[in-house]
Amino acid sequence: MAKQQLLLVDADPRSLRVLEVSLKKAGYSVTTAKDGADALAKLELSTPDLILSDTRLPNLDGYGLVRKLKERLDWASIPIVFLTSQKSIEDKIRGLELGVEDYLTKPIFVRELIARVNLLLARRAREGFVTRQMTTTGRTRFSGSLADMGIVDLIQTFEVSRKSGIVHLFYESGDAHIHFRDGKVVDAALGGLVGEEAVYRALLLNEGTFEVEFCKVDNPDLIEVTTQGLLMEGMRRVDEWGKLLEALPPLTTVFEVHSGELLERLNEIPDELNGILRLFDGKRTLMQVVDASPFEDLSTLSTISKLYFEGLLVPVEAQPAEHGDDMILSEAFVPVESRRQPEMGHAQPPIRRVAGAAV
Fold first, then answer.
1. CATH 3.30.450.20 is held by the domain 5-120
2. Is the full-model pTM beyond 0.85?
3. Which terminus of the chain has fewer Cβ atoms in its 10 Å neighbourhood, N or C?
């Protein structure tokens, strides 16, 4: 099997040499460049599997290099990792917005760098499999596990290949469908959710299977935001969702309203929260309340967290969920851990968009 090729770009000769030797010892073929212009010249000779670049370079810096890469169709899909001494969040966001895959801050530990490179190249191999399936004559469908290829990877692969079709997602308690036209996400549905809200909920899935269907998509453009914008907002929501979940009981927990606390604090509770409070009937699970809420997922969960920590919601002891699927649903929609406890507020949550209605 041929060695995977890396292009290493760094203006510091010592750093360049150390990383080159380390990566070659790890089994990679490494080409080096001293600045962005030199890197472009090396790219004309051979296309690498991955680029590792410092951001501070003479002639053409790392950000300029990325812009040049994105202008060329044959280079646009090459994964790029920034190696930099710049530690500000603004610099990191700038790189990610340009399409950089990862961002490592100097001093760089070789073991961490190699681990990141291995992960990125493994993901590229999976995406390459999808792309090959997309271009195989007569092949209109293929399927796989979300454990092997996540939803973000599927969306980005459609975007790069500029194909039209549908990604069908299946998990124990339901299914979802994301529609693409020329690589752009134009519509989606999950349960009663449609459009962007359906994509944001789908991004929470951490288990299940997918089926990709290549076909003409006539759905109207219900999703107007760019695919990259959709993913950036979606991953922000995934992070916030996980933070809230860590501070709450499991999604399978059944809650009821603490009548005593409610009576004492009735005048303090904003009217818009009454709609959510009424959903806690001692029978619905936490996830069922999120589904039934007229507000979007993140706002609903944030409001529930506030009510819970204010003592207005209490778990119903030893009461099983009405629907067995909720245990699966709870496990499927827990992406990351949380780290903070919110405070009671009075802002009205955004209204969610659901299939067939505007609530």
1. no
2. no
3. N
